[in-house]
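Contributing new records

If you add data, match the layout below exactly. Sequence lines come first and carry their own label; structure lines follow with theirs. Keep one chain per record. Anything else will be rejected by the validation script.
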Amino acid sequence: MDFLQIAILPIALLLFAVFAFQKWSALILGPLLSLLVAAVAGLPLLETMLGPYMQTAAEYIKNFFLVFFVGSVFGSIMEETGAARSLAHCMTSITKGKYVAPLIMTVTGILTYGGISGFVIFFAMYPVALHMFKEANLSRRLIPAAISAGCWTWSMSGPGTPAIQNVIAMRFLGTTSMADPIGGGITTILQFVLIFAYLEWQGRNYQSRGFAFVEDEHVQKYTSSLREGKKLPNPFISFIPSLLILVLFNVFSVKVEAAVVAGILAAIVLLSPYGGGYKEWISILNNGAANSAPAILNTAIVVGFAGVVRQTAGFSQLIDGLKGLNMPPLVFVAVTVAVAAGAAGSASGGMSVAFAALKDTYLALGVPLPWVHRISVIAAGTLDTLPHQGAQITLLNICHQTHREAYWPIFVTQLAIPIVALVVLIGYHAIVL
């Protein structure tokens, strides 16, 4: 086994984290570190960049561009018509201005558990979060963690969730979406409570340290329409387009892109008096469409890096090495899936790699497959949250935050707390085994 072939993978991830914290763009880091990995792995540089790198990035754009596009347009309508602010006012009135970040996490998680794509939620929830944080004078650096924790923790790994990670485990293991309902229920509640408490504590901690809401050029541009004295739409009317998307996608199994288009049309009809005249509506739609392009490009560029990693001998050696690990069965599942997800920079991508390589090993472990199912789903949502994760970079760009500003709360809520949940779940099964 060539040590350097394997060592270059964590080294590249470490370099990505270091440079990202120094505010290097993902558009530079993706290709640059892909070249480094290819060079150390002995892959032909030009062929690798034009082949696996671009193919992986292009495949990502092909699969998700419409989701980004319609999600961004929907988010623009919700923002510019004042619907997002109306919903924010309604929610803050219920909690009396308290628990802002945990409330964003909770609503996001409910939408995710309902089947709405995380990429759509990013665009739809950010305007709501922005206004709620502004009213509470809470630092914007907590917004990415509040939104992403709702998408990628308890709502992604809980029993019955329609998340792709749950589906992958079902297809490989022949289990159901409700696999390990008691153990999964315990970890779902545990993650929710810990994340809720942490977000509230971190928000107060920021305030005590003088980190307040900063209204920079981005915020001023984003909320410029709100200072024109326009009347806000009724919050119940504002919620109807989102509810329509939720019902179409979950109850009637309409594809998410079509469901969001229906939500856009409903929003235009219901919120037309609040968007202005014909020219103003053209501007709203144009802005939403334009915002989708840099969001998906930044993500695809990093996803291309994962495509290069999968071509290296080191990645194959890493997967082969995982097969030979000698540890308790459920710990073995957790470690192998987590490491694969970290190397791939994707929970779903890492699960697919781990199950493709280790399915027979998992089946022969001698433990109930529903336990393997639930542990693998939670484990996939741990090391995938390292700084090179493409979806994370997308959200940071949407929120106009950097890794230096916003990554620590993401790390705690989506890596540290899920690991705690894994330990608890494995311990629970060790007791009942």
